[in-house]
Design a protein that fits this description.
- The structure holds two protein chains of two kinds.
- By secondary structure, chain A is mainly α.
- Chain A is 74% helix and 3% strand.
- Chain A has a two-stranded antiparallel ribbon. In chain A, strands 3-4 form a two-stranded antiparallel ribbon.
- In chain A, strand 1 and strand 2 form a beta hairpin.
- In chain A, helix 3 runs antiparallel to helix 10, helix 5 runs parallel beside helix 11 and helix 10 runs antiparallel to helix 13.
- The radius of gyration of chain A is 23 Å and the shape is globular.
- The relative contact order of chain A is 0.13.
- Chain B contains 17 helices and ten strands.
- The chains are: A mainly alpha, B alpha/beta.
- Chains A and B meet through helix 3 and strand 4 of A and helix 4, helix 11 and helix 16 of B.
Amino acid sequence: MHIAVFLAPAVIVYSVFSIYPLIDTIRLSFYAGDQSGVRHFAGWDNFRTLLADPAWSGQFWNALRNNLMFFAIHMVVQNGIGLGLAMLLSLPRLTGGSIYRTLIFLPTMLSVVIIGFIWQLILNPLWGIAPSLLKTVGLGSLFRPWLGQESTALVTVSLISVWQFVGIPMMLIYAALINIPDDLLDAATVDGAGPFSVFWFVRLPLILPTLGVVSILTFVANFNAFDLIYAVKGALAGPNFSTDILGTFFYRTFFGYQLQVGSPTMGATVATAMLVVILIGVMIYLFGVQRRLQRHAF
Amino acid sequence: MKRAGRFLATVSVAASALAFAQAASAQTLTIESWRNDDADVWNNQIIPAFNKKYPNIKVQFKADPPTEYNAALNARLAGGTAGDLITCRPFDASLDLFKKGQLTSVNDVKGIENFSDVARSAWSTDDGKTTFCMPMASVIHGFIYNKAIFDELKLTPPKTMAEFHALLDKIKSDGNYTPIAMGTADQWEAATMGFQNIGVNYWKGEEGRKALIEGKQKLTDPAYVETFKELASWAPYMGDGYKSQKYPDTQNLFTLGRAAIYPAGSWDIPIFRKQADFEFDAFAPPVPDASGKCYISDHTDIALGINAKSKNIEAAKTFLSWIASSEFADIYANALPGFFPLSKEKVTVKDPVAAKFVGWRDTCESSIRNSYQILSRGTPNLENELWNVSAQVINGTMKPDEAAKKVEDGLASWYKPHKK
């Protein structure tokens, strides 16, 4: 009885605002609407359209590919730099560590719209400081309109996002690093391990579970990403959809864009496809990585 | 707790009774709109002018932010709480409302005969028989130029494309100014200020637009490829890094006096009036060859319809027929230079540049953007596709004939008259 009462608030809120909409979205993805707004059951039609109709599948695969690229850049650059920064912060001799920590974490708390705006100003070819900075060091010829070229736009947007969110992996890894008992590190040093070996053979294995958590958080956040691309490149994710990810694709489909009238049912289909992609990723993590990590847990 | 509950209940009953009383008192009209920028103009100029003639009909102007308008309006229409007069977006968004029975026909409203077929097309059924919103205003495309730069370099506004290019070359060789202020980062500029702006002269306005809808012309026809070719030729005249130049950048580039020519929509005029400290003027889209007629994109943008569930339909009709009068047209055109009344009645626009834009109606034939009626109903959406390929053509990542083929293939994939 008590258990039911104490669980009730969470269960009710969670069911109403999370589980029910999720299930209803999946249900909606099996329906199709006609002109007058009447919906009828359509079976797998929407999914067939999404995956087989060239008008849809091209966009879907393109968005998925871009999303994977977006994720890869975050994994390598954001989490790599996050790890490096955490290592530096955990150096015992470092003074002013908390100042650095705060400064690096600061962009995380800003609105994405502001981040997008600031970086567009910085990279602006007409009055941005990036071109003039490059010019003052004699590298002006290297400047390109990075946000406007198909070849560079996605990487640029990804790096902007990395710049904003690098504080989160840094903090998580830092917390894990300072939790490692000094005895272990001292013992390793006494046994003759250099700083590199200490990192590679002692610290890294001990923070692996945290790295796993960081990866899965990055994965889920990246495959749900939308706001930065929308703020910087709009819902058409130009040029030529080179920055289109699943989030912007979903937005265009569900809400419509400009003259394109939104389709709730196709939108639900895209949302369901996103759910499946995220589920697959999380499954791989749970069964492939988490289990192995738990075996080594101490 | 109980007392608070009872108090709340009383208050809410009282409030709803009040709301009901307000709704029931006849002759109060509420206007739903997305033009929250225009609230002052409505409250201080338009509604008082209307009340001078019709003191018994009260009018309230209520606006939502443009991005939320469609969603909010749909919810209110479905819930039966929408206002009496509905500001209509052009084409499918409003047509949907009419099909759902949420807007009434305005065919019998006095004043509708003041509007041409082109003006009515944005708010008429596909067969053109029923019009469901009273047209209010359109926006016109053309080119705005910096007079000071033109004087300094001794340039005259061009009439033909050949003259236009000679002019661009002169500005470029002078080297002090960017010849064309436009960017491709937002994509819509390339399509709206580029493709639709100059294109009407190539596909001969309404003639081409209708032929496209009927399937008699294809987007791979020379008219469209030529338009793309012309767009592609603009790239060398645009600013450094135009590929990541956004719309506000473009406006700044021009108002700071760094660019000579700005492919414009007339809605830019009020902004330039505020920001530019030099004189500017406008010329119509140059024609490909001087012998033919000229055409302009006089795009229907805003209209007013009647909520089918309104309790004050008669009063609403009275208001709409006043909207169709020259009195309204006069106030609207001068309060918001750049938004031009669509009625056939003569209107004096005081802003000289806006007057020039609207003056082209006398010498050139009007048409609207060719992707707006019917052709953007399917997937892929023609308007969105045009944004994409127009930007790509200027960026040099797509050839003009490839761009034409891409949009035609996209259209043919869902639109029957193009399927053959």
